[in-house]
Design brief:
This is ADP-ribosylglycohydrolase family protein. Its cofactor is Mg(2+). The protein is an all-alpha fold. The protein has a single domain, classed as Orthogonal Bundle (ADP-ribosylglycohydrolase fold), CATH 1.10.4080. The protein is built from 14 helices and no strands. Helix 7 crosses helix 9. The radius of gyration is 18 Å and the shape is globular. Magnesium ion binds next to helix 2 and helix 12.
Amino acid sequence: MSTISPVISQRSRLRGAIYGLLVGDALGVPYEFSSAEDLPKQNLIEMEPPPAFDRAHAGVPPGTWSDDGAQALHLLSVLLQGDVDIEGRLAQGLQSWLARGELTPDGRVFDIGIQTQEALSRLARGVPANQSGLCEERSNGNGSLMRVLPAALVPAEGDHVLLDRARRQSLPTHGHTRSLLACSLSTLISARLLNGTGFIEALDQAQECLETMTIREERDELRVLLDGRLDPPSGSGYVVDCLWSSVAAVLRTRNFEDCVRTAIGFGNDTDTTACVAGGWAGLLYGEEAIPLRWREQLRGKQLVEPLLQRLTDCWV
Ligand SMILES: [Mg+2]
């Protein structure tokens, strides 16, 4: 029996994407660093964890997004002003986030990845932003994947523009080809979800597109990325695992709430897995599908609304 799903407007998908990412991030914050076995039961995953649970980031009020959300909002702001200007607006945005907590609910940075910290100190020392990201194989954390979603949300003329944005936004913190390809695949998926394509089809199309458009020198790295799908999802900070854990969270569930709870249920880098999966689930199911209690508990909405207004205006 087939069910008729409600028509989801593009506006609802765009708003759902950003709020889905922020809600996923904020929901995952208290559970970060816990292994899957140590987490509360899935139906107890809320912005405020059960009292007996030893939460991460004590002192951060429930409903607060972290570095993931803040950097994604910075990228959105950059794209709303034009291209991914990495040496100018993106570099400045990342630095003012680190220095003053810009685009965070309390003006306070309480979470930062090791590679991002190192790359931003290189940037501060004068290394150009297109070289400040670390390029070693071990430097493939999920710190640029977690912020890439807006690359797919601002109108673009074709997949090559999406790929260019995805790669360039990664460079200031994560310069290795594997990270660039993970951001690329994620962006191609997101752009198709925005058009109303279902998730399985979006993933297939994105993968096929990336295989066609990847240059010979990067094909071995593409294989590493795509083969990551065969490993069990563990929600770690490794970019390949983060991508496929997020894919698994979407594929194993049918609504926003179950999706982000499943993402958190993998344990470890819970806020980032739920942020990537939550962005996709928001695109897929729309803003109204994000539980109202979580939308209401999310802090800092006054920082988000002006950006969302400009984003939806771009598409009119
Ligand atoms: Mg975080």
